[in-house]
Amino acid sequence: MKAAIGETIDNETLGGATTHSEISGVTDNTFDSDEACLDYIKSVMSTLGETPKAGFDRIEAVAPQANPDELYGSFPEDRTKPYDVKEVLDRIVDQGSFNEYKALYGKTIVCGSARIDGWAVGIVANQRKMVKTKKGEMQMGGVIYSDSADKAARFIMNCNQRKIPLVFLQDVSGFMVGSRAEQGGIIKDGAKMVNAVSNSVVPKFTIITGNSYGAGNYAMCGKAYDPRFIFAWPTAKIAVMSGSAAANTLLQIKISTEKAKGNEVSEEDKEQLLSDITKKYNDKLSPYYAASRLWIDGIIDPMDTRKVLSSSIEAANHAPIEETFNVGVIQT
Question: What is the pTM of this model?
Answer without folding.
Answer: 0.83
